[in-house]
Amino acid sequence: MDAVVLLSGGLDSYTAAAIAKSEGLTLSALTINYGQRHVRELNAARAVAATLGVRRHVEIDIDLSKFGGSALTSDVEVPKDRPCDALQIPVTYVPARNTIFLSLALGWAEVLGAGQIVIGVNALDYSGYPDCRPEFIRAFEDLAALATRVGVQGQRIQVATPLIALTKAQIIQRGVALGLDYGLTHSCYDPLPDGRPCRHCDSCVIRSHGFDAAGLRDPLLS
To answer: Do 49 and 77 touch, CB atoms closer than 8 A?
Structure first.
């Protein structure tokens, strides 16, 4: 089966794509430059796509910084060294980002005849993002069934979320078991001028805790 994978260059999307590939899916990768401040992840996405051997890798520019509304797409300061509270939506939430991304992936999936869209959302370490929850994914699948020609014809496109119920440590362990090189990835929301991770933003903290819990060293910090 063909699948479209949303590939950001981060740890989660890399692992989700690798799991899909291990299950025999033929991957086409979609990377979106949405005006985020951590543009280094675009280079990471290219490296990851090459390593995965995807059939095709498409990059699209959708400049959400024109809207702002997030610390990732504006001059709002990225929070550092704060406790991660999944009940509070942080300023790093980008309004409707996953809805936009999945809509683009859905359009391409319909063109390709792909039966799946793969996204690396995770409900346990999701840092308060409402568009990483299982109920959102189910709702989007229902929308896709109503909004597409293939859906109307009864060919439901599945949104695959292989990481949805895993902790960050479990995600890392699964990826290591698949032989993934996490040194290719980028997770930091606010990287230093030379591209190194800040180690203090929510994403860096969650990543660090994940490697610690997995009993492994992050190759980006070696």
So the answer is: no
The pLDDT of residue 86 is above 60: no
Contact 208, 218 (CB under 8 A): yes
pTM of the model: 0.94
| Assigned superfamily of 2-221 | HUPs (3.40.50.620)
Per-residue pLDDT of 139-150, as tens digits, reads 999 999 999 999
111 CB neighbour count, 10 Å cutoff: 10
- Interatomic CA distance for residues 57 and 14, integer angstroms: 13
Work out the angle between the directed axes of helices 97-112 and 134-147 (0-180°, nearest 10).
40
pLDDT bucket at 38, cuts 50 / 70 / 90: confident
Residue spans per domain, the chain: 2-221
Residues 6/30, Cβ–Cβ less than 8 Å? yes
Cα–Cα distances (Å) from 61 to 96, 142, 169, in that order, read: 16, 27, 32
Residues belonging to the chain: 222
For 117-137, the pLDDT digits (tens) are 999 998 776 567 899 999 999
Q: Where are the beta strands (DSSP E) in the chain?
A: 2-6, 26-33, 56-61, 116-118, 158-160
Q: Dig out the tokens for 134 from the structure.
A: 């299982």
